[in-house]
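Collaborator request, handled under Task 6.
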Amino acid sequence: MKEKGNEMREEYDFSKAVKNPYAKRLKKQVTINIDADVIDYFKKQSSVSGIPYQTLMNLYLVECMNENKKLSIKWE
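Structure tokens returned to the collaborator:
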């Protein structure tokens, strides 16, 4: 005997479905090597702000992108 509300339909009607307006902003999982002290820095910021450290890192990178920040690397 099946419980009411737990049945799977054979077909679903998606004719009235709406495209996700945030689809372009979906995150993509990547593997990246980051110095341990950088991770520690963002984890400390996370404990102060209550925002997960990976979110903080992403927010900082988004800010760099939006402000079109350029790297200044000087080799000696």
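The cover message to the collaborator said: "Helices lie at 36-49, 53-66. The first helix runs from residue 36 to 49. Please let us know whether this matches your experimental observations."
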